[in-house]
Predict the structure.
Amino acid sequence: MRTSPAISILEGSGYSECLDRLSASGGVPRPLATYRLQLSADFRFADAERLLPYLDALGVTHLYVSPILQARAGSTHGYDITDHNQLNPELGSERDLRRLARALKQRGMSLILDLVSNHVGVGNHNKWWQDVLENGQTSEFAGYFDIDWAPLKEEMHHKMLLPVLAAQYGEELEGGKLKLMYLQADGKFAVEYYESRFPIDPQTYPLVFATRPRPVAYSTGQDKVLPAQPELSELRALLSEFNELPPHWDADPESALLRRARLPELIARLSDLVRNSDGVRRYVEASVARCNGSPGRSRSYDCLHRLLEAQAYRLAHWKVSAEEINYRRFFDINDLVGLRMENPRVFAATHQLIRRLLAEQLISGLRIDHPDGLLNPRQYFTRLQMLYCAAHCAGPVAKPPLAPNGMEEEFQEIFGRHQWAIQRPPLYVLVEKILQPGERLPAEWPVDGSVGYEFAALANGLFIDPQGERPLTNLYRRFTGGSGELEETIYSSKRLIMKSSLPSEINVLTHMLAEICRTDRRARDYTQNALRDAVREIIACFPVYRTYIDERGEVSERDRATLLQAVARAKRRNESAPAAVFDFIRDILLLEAPAHGAPADARKQRLAFTLKFQQLTGPVMAKSLEDTAFYVYNRFIALNEVGASPDRFGVSLQGFHQENLERGRDWPASMLATSTHDTKRSEDVRARLDVLSEIPGAWSAQVNRWRRANHVFKRTLGDGRSVPDANEEYFLYQTLVGAAPLALTKGKLDDAELEDFSQRIKAYMTKAVHEAKVNLSWINPNAEYVEALSQFIDRILASPERRRRNNFWKHFTEFLPLVSFFGAMNSLAQTLLKITCPGVPDIYQGNELWDFSLVDPDNRRPIDFRARERVLAELLTEANRGDLSSVCEKLLGHWPDGRIKMWVTHQALAFRREHHDLFMTGSYVPLEVSGSRREHVVAFARAHEERDQMAIVAAPRLSCSLMRGDMRPPLAMVWDNTELQLPRPAPTHLLNVFSGEVIESQNGTLLCREIFRSFPLALLAAR
């Protein structure tokens, strides 16, 4: 059982009483099963509400939706939030949300929200960001964003770099692309650049007029623009007052308050003066026009240049961001800016709407996106629990002491004394934490678990034959002509990302190290280059996404082991580099005591470096592993998945059971996912690709045959490159096998469907080659290469009249039925395991039928829910007639239509709902299997002794090998003498909820030939 840390002081806050009340009420209900919906302007709250009868009938208890807060206009995913305290109007109104919540509640269902806490989308509509651009360090919101106001380049001090220009700054300036505007409605000046708007610092308004207005008239045409003398004097005086404001770089709190207090009045006076005086208005317009310059006259842009140079930001070419950007981003996306969520004011300011939704019980859980980007994830999760208690016990209006740093520790003490809450915190919180193989979620986090990437990898691995690893590895090396070493691919990908996408972040760490060295006589001779190289190497050798040292300065044994491993690997790879530099950085990261004679703030400096270092290792890992190596190391792409490792080739039965036992003990309400909006390919694509591990010889013969057939369709570019290259071609063939529509197995794919498939593959391959960053990248695109790749795909997926000359098409369509059939068997088994293993099963939208989607945006295509509703209704009608065996016979005979997957999903979820306690709190018991086919079945029991309940789960694995490639053998014949040993006491007569068959145990055992006599899965309960 997990334990909570302890301290104590918050007794009078009301949190303890609140937890007592929550405990007495039985705590917050956890989901029994969730269904993930991607909301957008094309699928709104009202559409989700209309879907509830179907989801309820399917067996789902919680609707789990993508972010619903205000995002950029037209966002298809919602992760580019611009306002945390407004709903996204494209999804519907608050009234619509309330209707949805009420409809859910009427069905005993609830709502889980996906929450983005690490970052915020910036631009014209983000008021906080616009205020910081306008007022710099004097802005009320300057501390909300993770901005370095003292970056390496001295000329950038007190400024933010804004890499937004399509070309070099001077070119855009003198090309008239940057336009100064006076916005009468706001009473302010701003610079517009296409759709973007950048406010002008009011203290610099006098620069618009170049010099103080002089009593010398000038004109445009016949109209004099000089205002009358009294108005001119008033304008002079007003500009003088603007000039006397504290500058944007004056971060002194009193100066900032003075500026903020004076600005509204000055802006209002300017607005009134311009509105009420035609002469002033014309004068302002003429000054703006003059400042904007004239095309072809370089000196005419001096005024606008001086004005822009005086701002709290510097506009720059977008490519400058890699090296010089001085704010933390979401990975390398310039307009998603990191929030300083560790600041209690930021937490309070960004969670007002969430608190209200919790208080009004409109939502019952949160999924936290990208927690590794937070400075202190544990602190944030604790604050969420505090927020829930405050909302639940004090209501949406009362303001309990949520804010001050340090209170989280005191809350943890109170929290820890409520034993029920240690295993199940007050608020249901899931975290999008990507765990590497062998890594565990930090036990001290007050959450219910992860969003299930690790289960997806675990379940998928169960259907991969480890004996296929060597032949598939050899095939990959022969096909591509490379060594195909994963460790080297990840290492080189990390170095590439740090040099091309995130060098500014490396520079910041280097600068921090140099400052530490400056006051350490033993380290002051380390050069910037040596420090930079060592930092890069340690991060390149980091085995996990990040460590979790926080402001308390305590280093856990887990984090210590990680850091020591990373440094040791880096030293091994760089034997010619001074080992002392690596040791120096290691000691800083481990927060070892500074050397004798170090300044008083030395420990604070080291902690600051460590915290910043931790925020970088995660993005580097994600960008290099998920978004680079997964498209470069293509040995077996079923393993190239978020939360998985391409070198973990298969999962043993023992390993599968052990992971489930640990999850049931430590994180019983953690989510179980097999497809998500982030997965590189859907569960059905992976399940089909898994079959290749069982038939490496046949696969090798096929891809070599396809290569020979398609060689004529390749194109050689002027630089000698053949498109696609061998690695891309091998990746493409796996993708085609995994994603091909099932209609191809029957030869029923019409021209329109084939064209749709071809377009999807071309879009996917275009993304894949850019992500791989080998022949081109997003930073360095190559239209000719993309066109050649698209032509290759067009030619191999030829139109009907050309197929007769296309040997690839013939061999491909002949090979597809085998992997499609056994891939379907894998997928059905995986679905059953997800619904019955310890944890909360999640269904990604549409995946209750076959779905062969690839990475986003492919997996965000519209879902035909009407078809799914119709299929479920028909199945329930047939089932109600009472003869489940005939239902199963039809489903097996027509498995390509996907109805069989819907049946498995519904029947398992319905059984789970009927036996709620068995699956939520029951034990997990691996079953002993004996016989010649024992490696081909995974079996376990779910037992609840107090309620005298038990269910037996059994599913085949490695089915292609088991059935020797025969797609329709008598199921009973293949099992020979294989049998399951049942736990005691177990019922003697068991009913299979899928087929309706009653199976009798013999001496406490079940024969597999009886279990799988007429249906390939078994969920058995006492008759």
User: Anything to note?
Assistant: DSSP finds 37 helices and 31 strands in the chain. The chain has four domains: 10-118+339-451, 127-330, 485-632, 864-1022. The first helix runs from residue 15 to 24.
